[in-house]
Design goal:
alpha/beta; 9 strands; globular; 5 helices; nine-stranded mixed beta sheet
Length: 143
């Protein structure tokens, strides 16, 4: 996965890549603004970070929820077509498939993607994930 892939993620239609710089260029977004990392398994996430013990059970049960730990946003995708897509790589940077600050435009998204992966559901904009910032024993809803 060297380029930018347009795919229906576990939440909404998105651009995904292993290259954050390519994603930033695709969206015309400042390159210093971090991207969400989506992981196919808890084991893949454990190579990059540590989930505070108080939240491990919650993270295993929650679906379509993004967490921020020590400034890094991540979501673990434990089932479904997007999970199957992530498995060979373990993780991918992910962002909504739109120009920075704009709504989803399928023509724009298809034009900007290096590869389009579409399943029987097609591509559609859906509500984004809830976002929580967690540390040790505290949790704060961001979105």
């Amino acid at each position: 996965m060297n380029g930018v892939v347009l795919i229906q993620t576990d939440t909404t239609v998105g651009f995904v890549s292993l290259d954050a710089q390519k994603l930033a260029a695709t969206k015309a977004r400042p390159p210093e603004k971090p991207f969400l990392k989506t992981y196919g398994t808890f084991a893949a996430y454990s190579k990059d970070g540590r989930i505070p013990p108080a939240f491990r059970r919650e993270l295993r049960r929650k679906k379509r929820t993004t967490y921020v730990v020590k400034g890094s946003a991540f979501r673990i995708v434990s089932a479904g077509p997007y999970h199957d897509f992530l498995k060979p790589w373990g993780w991918a940077y992910s962002t909504s498939a739109n120009a920075s600050g704009h709504r989803f435009d399928e023509a724009f998204a298809r034009e900007k993607a290096d590869l389009v992966v579409e399943d029987r559901r097609g591509l559609f904009e859906a509500p984004p994930s809830a976002i929580y910032k967690i540390n040790h024993r505290k949790k704060k809803r961001i979105r």
